[in-house]
């Protein structure tokens, strides 16, 4: 087990792919493929190889269902968040939420973590949109706010609804008052 952990850490820092590492981890750790992939996912996170971490969770997503799949999708959303892919992050957390609510064996702590992450994405992407007017962040925030309305019995539903309205107002302001950072304006200035 310690050797398997160390091997996962060393190979993750070197950026070694799954095909080479998983068989060795299974052999050394005397565990399952899912356990080996779990060790690798943690190691890839520590080494900052988020693309390889995505590969691990994509492989695990194919092997899991129900509450376990919801947890894997939660981690896939985290990878997308870290890679700056707001649409993908929100899509995965919404899918995780739907699965977690449908699976009776989902621990309450996991459901709460998924709901908190959905709320976090809505607020973070809203904030980024408000300062950048980047449509990717608007769309992701809007989608997260809409999905949050489907969360049963949440204390923050009213606040999230109000924030969704503020996002719509920010969008309306952005449409009417494009500034110096508007791509068309930048292009015009560069050609001047």
- Shape call: flat
Beta-strand residue fraction: under 5%
The description of the largest β-sheet is:
none
Q: N-to-C SSE series?
A: HHHHHHHHHH
Beta-strand segment tally: 0
Q: What would you call the structural class?
A: mainly alpha
If you average the pLDDT, what whole number results? 86
Topology of this protein?
Layout: H1 2-14, H2 18-29, H3 33-47, H4 50-63, H5 66-82, H6 86-102, H7 108-132, H8 135-148, H9 157-176, H10 183-191
Helix pairs in contact: 1-2, 1-3, 2-3, 3-4, 4-5, 5-6, 6-7, 6-8, 7-8, 7-9, 8-9
Please, could you describe this protein's structure?
With 192 residues, the protein is mostly helical. It has helices at residues 2-14, 18-29, 33-47, 50-63, 66-82, 86-102, 108-132, 135-148, 157-176, 183-191. Helix 1 packs antiparallel against helix 2 (18-29), helix 1 (2-14) crosses helix 3 and helix 8 runs antiparallel to helix 9 (157-176).
Defining traits:
single chain; 192 residues; mainly alpha; 10 helices; 0% strand
Short account of what is shown:
This protein has 192 residues and is mainly alpha-helical. The protein has 10 helices and no strands.
